[in-house]
Specification:
Layout (H helix, E strand, L loop, with lengths): L2 E5 L2 E4 L4 E8 L6 E8 L6 E6 L5 E3 L7 E6 L4 E6 L8 E9 L4 H6 L9 E2 L3 E6 L1
Parallel strand pairs: 2-11
Antiparallel strand pairs: 1-3, 3-8, 4-5, 4-9, 5-6, 7-8, 9-10, 9-11
Length: 130
């Protein structure tokens, strides 16, 4: 049984940065496509960053250049460095694990296919104030 535990959220001023963490228990995360999603109040959950088992990464256009997804193999932990936050990015951020993307095209589409993810963290709240 895979368990994901999100942490690192909190209050931050616009323009600020945070690093979110996702600890993975029960199975080496390197077997999965790992992703970060976010969901603002009243909005649909959207994918923002993903990393495949081969290390290739994908980002939503809205976060390219500001968000960075990384992994620490020794700690079985996934990270999301988020910079230059704006108030519209206030949301609950979730990590998720799904099957490995077998092609580059599949990897690019992984952030738009919420139903491919079998395991989810509990989420961590990021609140951006002006």
């Amino acid at each position: 049984q895979v368990q994901l535990v999100d942490s690192g959220g909190g209050p931050v001023q616009a323009g600020g940065s945070l690093r979110l963490s996702c600890a993975v228990f029960g199975y080496p995360y390197s077997y999965y496509y790992m992703a970060w999603f976010r969901q603002a109040l009243g909005q649909e959950r959207e994918g923002v960053a993903g990393i495949n088992s081969d290390g290739s990464t994908n980002y939503a256009d809205s976060v390219k250049g500001r968000f960075t997804i990384t992994e620490d193999n020794a700690k079985n932990t996934l990270y999301l460095q988020i910079n230059s936050l704006n108030t519209e990015e206030t949301a609950r951020y979730y990590c998720a694990a799904g099957p490995t993307a077998r092609t580059a095209k599949q990897g690019r589409g992984a952030l738009r296919d919420i139903f491919r993810y079998k395991y989810w963290g509990q989420g961590t709240q990021v609140t951006v104030s002006s």
